[in-house]
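FAQ: What does the model actually see?

It sees only this:
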Amino acid sequence: MSEQPDGPDLSVLVPDWIDWAETARLLGVSVSRVRTMIREHELAAAVPSPGAGQQVPADFVQDGLVVKGLPGLLTVLHDGGYDDRQSIAWLFTDLDLPGRPIDALRENRGSEVKRRAQSMAF
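And it is asked to produce this:
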């Protein structure tokens, strides 16, 4: 995984990104609500590649909702000192769960993911 000055290359880690307008459309909310969700750590956003503008990983939205368990997990990560970019990188890195934390959340296997995130915060 290549590193950028501010951490891992998210364009390599995260396969699909959506802009705030598309995120709003998929969730059935306004763009200003998406902005609030990002600020309140219900969602996370980052600039995936230079010049792209801030976007949300597409895997954070499932069946018209934010993936179950994601807001709580993002709060744990932020409380542990992670910013959005670091949180996204952690969620898309293989941790032998099996697989990536985001996959475990999407498959309703979030307990182990949250336990690992909580242990990192201490």
